[in-house]
Amino acid sequence: MRIPLLVATMAGLMAGHAALAQPQPSMTGGRPILLMGGFPAGTQADIYWRLIQQPLAAELGSPTAVEARTGASGNIALEATARAAPDGTVVLAATSAMLAINRAVMPSMPIDTQTDLAPVMTLFEAPNVLVVSAEKRPQFTNCQALISAARAAPGRLNYASSGIGASTHLAAAQFATAANIDVTHVPYRGGPFAMTALYQGDADLFFYQSGPVLDDWRNGRVRLLGITSAQRMPSLPEIPTIAEACDMPGFVSTTWYGVVVAAATPRPIIDRLHAAIRKVTDTPEIRARLEGMGFTMMLGGPEEMRARLAADIPHWAEVVRRSGARQQ
Asked: Which region is the signal sequence (predicted)?
């Protein structure tokens, strides 16, 4: 990751929005709003909240703060949101893995993601990319070279993930099954740690979201061998899909993000949050930044998010069952 460049970009975007946004009556009576993510600083939800933090504060008429509440594959952030006062002062950008996969992987979830949280909106969909180190694994020039190496030495290659049952884990498990290869899973405590392992040569490959690795791809530090979306991304036309690069027709594995609050939050607050977040996100500057990171914008309302989650839960339960992923 190239954090200084990212911070400079976000600062410019936020300054432009702050100059345009006009303060509105406070949604929370002036109390601060916590914009929370479940994974470390520099990961996607954290980047997103910092991009829109200032214009969102103006739109909601309340100060905002961004916090990465990490741990337990996002469950700590989920539980903190579910237990928060239902007044819109704690707002979580959650991944579909947190909302749908965790419940299939973990025998005892601290909350029920369908009944203890209220959906506000879908944000965007993010495919994973198959990442290898250009320096540590120069022989992996393309996906077929990687598969051939794995087949030649069953069990010798390993793949990193951001945690057991995370989308980064399940994308790799799906890939291994489709490629008919035996590779070893090594979970880490979040994507940045897994990327460090890749850079150091401790991990052979990693399925990760594109945003944090684009700078290192452009400067040649890593190779992106394929993307897990159904079609090539308009913002990354050079990167083939896994389906085409690896000869795996129909291979798709993406993550989507959505905003949730405590379940008892009144509908007027949910509607105002949805309207405000959609307004500040659906601008040319923010759209360009997010699409440049490989995201596909969604911005659907509470009902759309509820229906998508209801469909995803049984889908990922079956993927988890086939993968054998399980946390204690």
From this structure: 1-21
Q: What tokens were used for 151?
A: 């087949």
List, in order, residues 6 or more apart from 203 with CB less than 8 Å away.
158, 159, 160, 186, 194, 197
- ∠322-77-48 over CA atoms, to 5°? 95
- Helix H or strand E segment including 193: helix 191-200
What confidence tens digit (pLDDT) does each residue in 254-300 have? 889 999 999 999 999 999 999 999 999 999 999 999 888 878 899 99
Domains and CATH numbers, the chain: 3-125+256-323 (3.40.190.150), 127-245 (3.40.190.10)
Cross-strand pairs, 164:
none
For residues 228 and 251, the answer to whether their CB atoms sit within 8 Å is: yes
Instruction: Report strand pairing: 222-227 vs 117-133.
Output: antiparallel
* 305 and 120 Cβ atoms separated by less than 8 Å: yes
- Gap between the Cα atoms of 52 and 24, Å rounded: 16
Q: What is the pLDDT of residues 169-187, one digit of tens each?
A: 999 999 999 999 999 999 9
**What is the pTM (predicted TM-score) of this model?**
0.81
Q: Which residues of 122-161 are buried (b: 16+ CB within 10 A; e: fewer)?
A: bbbbbbbbbbbbbeebeebeebeebbebbeeeeeebbbbb
